[in-house]
Every structure is written in structure tokens, then in C-alpha cells.
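thread from #wetlab-drylab

HS: before we spend reagent money on co-crystallization trials with adenosine monophosphate, can we at least see a predicted complex? here's what I'd submit
DV: go for it
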Amino acid sequence: MKVLVAVKRVVDYNVKVRVKSDNTGIELTNVKMSMNPFDEIAVEEAIRLKEANKVSEIIIVSIGPKQSQETIRTALAMGADRGILIETESEIQPLSVAKLLKEVCDQEKPELVILGKQAIDDDANQTGQMLSALLNWSQGTFASKLEIEEDKLLVTREIDGGLETLKLTMPSIITTDLRLNEPRYASLPNIMKAKKKPIEEKKPEDFGIDISPRLTTLKVIEPPKREAGVMLESIPQLVDKLKNEAKVI
Ligand code: AMP
């Protein structure tokens, strides 16, 4: 069984992002970029399935600038088998990503596609669901546990009231939640080995997909500064402030 994992190169989660002075976006010059954290979890899960002999091949796909190769290499160093880079310098939105991933699925015919539940740069939480709709495949979003039982997938999801387990008929789309696993670090020998693993390079035009944005960003601004809080002496004082100052009760 083949598994496809989609990984996005994003601003590292430790970076405090700064808004550009012209308010058109965030500053990316000299900023550390890394694999989207939820995608690391997706790669780790695919590798665990391979180690359990449930999966024969793991293919990593990334869509973005040339440097996304490094993100693919990281996944290969963790243990994936080969990569596909769909190179574009243009901004790429979830619907275009989903359309491109659909084309890759049509060619590669995986039984399972694992994505992160959301990319921490756009916070869209859309790509997996859109891909599932385009392919008409089953989907299990926000997975916190994944098991393969014969030809079915058991996906545990965290929902408001507790846990829900879905039984999916493959091929399926899975999106990962934080508690699914703890991704491994690549060892030095595996980083060296990953340099020899193949990465196929493509462009969106090779698939005949128009990636022009459907959404326009009007303005990006810093959130307002939080004002200092006040310590109150008593509950009646709090109630008084909520009633007469904040006017919320
Ligand atoms: P989003 O819908 O943008 O929040 O992204 C959800 C997931 O879709 C990510 O965690 C990735 O697994 C995948 N994804 C989004 N954008 C890309 C991209 N440019 N290249 C590869 N995978 C992506």
C-alpha cells in the first residue's frame, strides 16, 4: 500500500512573526522556515505504518518555492522513500493545493493520503477536506489515533463530547491532530542517506492547473497591544466592574 504525505514549508513555529511595513503581509526575509508541525506528525504516522509492515512506500509532496526541497529532504531523512516537488514562486491557496494533490493521486494511486489538519501560516484547515471532495474519497479529519484493520481504517477523532472512532473504506484522506504521535528527529546517517533519495520536480503547469488566487488579502496588521490587567480585592468589586465598566452583565 502506497501512502502520500503532503508537507508545507512554513515560517518556523518558534519565530515571532512581524508584519511588513506596507501591511501587505508578513516579513519572510531571513526568517527561519521549517516543515509545518502537523505535517511532521503526518510523516511520522506514515513511517510508523511502514515500520508495522502495513505500508510499502511513502511519497512526500510539497508545493511551493524551490527551497521546499529542504522540507521534502527532512521528511526523507525521517524515513520516507521519495519526493515530488511542485515548484512555484506564486502564492498558493488551499483549493489550488488540493487540485494539484488530486492530480498527483490520479498518477500515483495511493490508498491513503495524510495531511496536517492545518498549515500554521494560513491556518486555513481546508486542504484535506477539499482533496477528499475532489477525489470523492472518505475522510477522517483531526485524527488522534490511526489503525489499519484489514482493508479498513479506524480513525479516532477528538470531538467536543469526547472521542469518536470512524471506520473508513480506503482510499482515504486523513488529517493529523497534535496528539496522534510525537515525530522523531532524523539521525545523521539517515540525513546522509536522504541525500540520495529521488525528488521529482514538476510545475503546476505540467498538470494544467490554474493556481491563481481566489482570495485577496486586503491588509495585514499587528493585533492591538494588550493593556495591563488590574488586581481586584473582592468578588463584589469584580461584579461591579463587569456591570458598570465593561457593561457585560
Ligand atoms: P491548510 O488547509 O492550508 O491549513 O493546510 C492543511 C494541510 O494541507 C497542511 O498541513 C499540509 O499537509 C497540506 N498543504 C497545504 N499547503 C500545502 C503545500 N503548499 N504543499 C504541500 N502540502 C500542503
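DV: The two ends are 58 Å apart (CA to CA).
HS: ok that's useful, forwarding to the group
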